[in-house]
């Protein structure tokens, strides 16, 4: 537990202190810098404290975080981790100081810079020390985010912003890929930490290989391996401290680090021979990077590409080091190589920024004779030459030793395997060395002023503002502040950090013992030597010959007038191509589908449903077979065929008819035909309702159409396609209906009441509707024979009940009494579910009120007018007043009203009821209104429509209240027989009053709404 | 519990004693009534209604804790209450309360005085429907509650009354909804016809009987998928979503993005679990084809949503496609119903979905709130107008960034954990599910781009516009959401424990003894 706290403290110290600087006033630069410097210092101190206390490789108990998803705070402090952490914090310290010198006293920049930089520091420390996969991923993503913010530092610079995006996308795509790989390894091995994974080991399987491949892609993206390396040169848009720190010394090593982390897992594991791909990719990157670096003129670009090259080398090294040698892997952590790169590349970048700061350019050709300019410029030039010498891996540098390691690795690889690929690798290594040497020679020649002008081409790309703050960016706030520091301290801090790092490079190179004393404890084993050799102790052999060959070839290239022009890296096209493909390609593709036209949407959806049905049909046997005898020749079907034919004709004509009104009428034909079908096949009540609804909705439809703007001339090129879709969905629905109609019932549980199966649902409902469920005990013949034996006290009863005893519990009697009606639907509506119906008519009334209110509002004028808004030119008279109609209506309307009363009264036993009756009456009234106009209707109607509604609601509620008054639950109904003379009897039911209420409401609502619409049309 | 609720029901209503388990819904209904009568007492009707709605939602949220544990089937199995339902109701009510707060903070001024009562009635009504969608397995109730959730949504979508795009979107939404509803009812009625019961649990049991798998079952399932797919906005039933999001106000779009889709997902989850558990999670014709369909549906939806999001310039449209993609991820998980022939994978998937929803809620609320804030201050919904937000409104920009990164699934935000759990349950089962994991992975990579584009605009572009002022409330909501995203990651372990029972749906339904 305390171990974790130590390490977490070290990880988060920079971030905390970085955020702390935000609290300072903007101008408090010195204090800000001081606190910022404390960040890495605190990290180093805590790490040192930890090492003092626990030492390397101590087991660190993890803290549970979310064990269910294997997410724990598991850290590890092994050689690689501690080394990386110290590297990050150490270079971080120097970079913090350098940044202060670099930005000068620009308050705004520093305000923004330190928190971003320290965020990165924390993230990178976390990457180095994390043991848990997910913990690593968290920090890994944070490094990408901070890098993103820092690359896009110059917000006005479009190119910088684009490059920030590019870098983030590439590294993050890699990061997500890596996440996939780590999850795969985690699931397969069950170990969700690196230490656990190393302990468990893996056995090869396709999935493991996929996992490793995904992780490698992530590592390759982060460490700028070919072909994903292009983001790194682009990232040079960042301020130089960032380039020195993130994009050469630390962050880009994260991928290498990860491969190193997993190195013990795959090293020497013959199952994972696929790891040779690491070598190949690394080698390609190495050569390509070095070559392109030679063809660049901007200092930061040159160094960026040599970084790419070096990263390739590191990757390649891990690939080579995988082989067993003397019973051990070729290398353990490869720390020397990583450290070495940091110790010459960071100075190079620092100096590039420093030089640009004083001479306002980073173009190499423009730096001719820098050394002769004296003062600080001379120091910078000398340091840069020294750093470039390390880049070329000249003797007496750690670089030289590190490169020897690499060559030894190749040589031993060749020795062990004898594979032809190693010859290629030797060639690649020599070429890389040669290019690096050539770069060193060129830089030296230019700085010493030993070349003609115009020897190297100098296009001005990639210009970062901060490198020449004098002529740009005098921001309003800082106008009174000289962006250059005065005095000696801060200006010299532009190059002192480079000097410190370089000193280590050379001391280590000249006295390897000193290096070993410092870092030997971390890199446990040098497999090739007992101890690091002095430069003059170099063994003769293939590695040394390779070095020499590189120097020689490099010298030739460096002095010869070849490769002097600047080239573009072809890989720079990858990201724009990707961008165009997804953004423009995607946009075009989706404009085809998301057209904004409803008809397209419906067509696609319907087509998808057809496809789904067809797909399932192809998978299910029996889907396409029908029973052999469908009984289609039955004579009773013939009228149905005729009606159906009419319906089909209407459907076919529908899309052909042009005018809206005609379409509605054609639709009406289909509806009426459906009514006929209901009537033909034993559903007279449905038919009655349907025909009334059909008429009312037709009238409503036509009225609404009259409100629409005039129809635009139809133009639809995709008509045939839509026809195909239409026919397809029609065919599918036809088939499904046929299937459903002829389906044999599957085995199923028969509906039962109290364990007694109900043979016939219709019978059950009818009995329930008439008498309540107590008749279930009786046989059908008893019920339908007209006589029900209910016991001696009521011998001839037909549902009559004994009088309610006083104080009897309510349900003792009424639970077993039906509605007394044979029209099941009506009984349900007005009796069993009368309360629902009351709610419904209330809602209907409210809806009608809403419609009236809305129609009265001049809402259409509130809308923002469209430019090409179609207007309604035609004015429609809602009255149709021909002589024949007038005469016919005079007779027909009273007749219809009487008929509606008839339907209403009959409704409880036969098809009909308040609802249908109301509709029929409404139709009659609407026809009357359309013939004779509004005033005539007003004279005719006993009450205005809202009066009708009020009356209806009052009737319904009072029916219920009467029951309440009788001490019974609200809306309790009763029915019975009133004898009329000796033989006749009248069947009464209290629900009739309720039904009358429904009738009244329906009439009021329908007439009212159509009337309101008609007025609107006539406006 | 029931003693305190005894006064709610009257003896005339059968089953009044069972209302206790639906206290949140009752509180919502009371809140609707409250919203309707509030305008009579105050001049500031909009604001007063918002407060009443907020109080109702918070009250309903609190009452969710009271009903937790009242597991069982109520009203003869018409409604059920179990861990999944309770979790969803909690999330939904919390989210809707967030929407109301967001409205107060950003949209309130844009609404005409007097429209508030309508708006909040509709909002609460839709919430009621969505809440019940998690609580039913009865075909009739399913249809009813889906419509109860949909109808107010249609009106809400067109609530920008003077906006043509809004009116058009609303109309498209209605028509599209009607079309898919009709397909769903067709399927449901066939199911009723085939099995003679409306109880999906019983239907599922009968489906599992060998020989009882009628060929028309495929049509039943297609109908269900079409109806629920419309609510989830799964491809190809998604067309309404971008248009409606663009046409509606930000608050409505935000509401639909989580509440509507989440409710439908929970409903689908329950159905899938019932069908799967009735079949003993064995591979039968029904379960296998359902698993395939859902897997493909999820994969296509996620991919389509992400690809289409690339070219969007309107923030709401972009978030619409983003929500389509996220729904796709969750649908993928539902395809686990036949994995390994036992209930563990499906239960894990259910838990993963509810966890995902929980995280998704905060991501979306945060992102939409900031979008609403920008809209309030600039009147624009274009992504380009977010430029320089990092300087103009640092807090808002930071919140937006956190939400967007969480939507991608980047650590250290809860979206990462949610997506990870989702992918892990799929991966654990190997086989074709691995393909789904890769699809989600690739989609995550794809989605990175368009989310990041907004971050880029906010931080790396600046047209030098003025500081974005505006009220503090939306920023508070945003910060709360962003904080939740971090807190949820830190506390993922306890979230995991909290949701452990989410997948044990069939326990409530299949046991006859539980029917109260």
Write structural notes for this entry.
The complex is a heterodimer of chains A (1019) and B (516). Chain A is mainly alpha-helical. Among the domains of chain A are: 1-131; 761-818, no CATH class; 826-859 and 874-1018, no CATH class. In chain A, helix 11 (253-266) packs parallel to helix 13 (299-321). Chain B has 516 residues and is mostly helical. Chain B has a two-stranded antiparallel ribbon with strand order 1-2. In chain B, helix 3 (45-67) runs antiparallel to helix 4, helix 11 (250-278) packs parallel to helix 13 and helix 11 runs antiparallel to helix 14. The longest helix of chain B has 36 residues, at 343-378. The chains are: A mainly alpha (1019), B mainly alpha (516).
Short description:
With 1019 residues, chain A is an all-alpha fold. In chain A, a hairpin with a 2-residue loop joins strand 3 and strand 4 (328-329). Chain B has one domain (2-514).
The helix content of chain A, as a percent range, equals 55-70%
- Poorly predicted ranges of chain A: 459-482, 778-805, 808-816
Major interchain interface with per-chain residue totals: A-B, 79 and 82 residues
Strand content of chain A: under 5%
Please provide the count of β strands of chain A. 8
In terms of DSSP E residues, the strand content of chain B is under 5%
Secondary structure tally, helices of chain A: 36
- What summary fits the major beta sheet of chain B? 2 strands, antiparallel
How many separate helices of chain B?
21
Quick one: biggest sheet of chain A? Answer: 2 strands, antiparallel
Strand elements of chain B, count: 2
Give the helix proportion of chain B (percent range).
over 70%
Look at the structure and give the mean pLDDT of chain B.
85
Shape of chain A: elongated
Features:
heterodimer; A: 1019 residues; mainly alpha; two-stranded antiparallel ribbon; two-stranded antiparallel sheet; 36 helices; elongated; B: 516 residues; 21 helices; 2 strands; 72% helix; globular; disordered N terminus; disordered C terminus
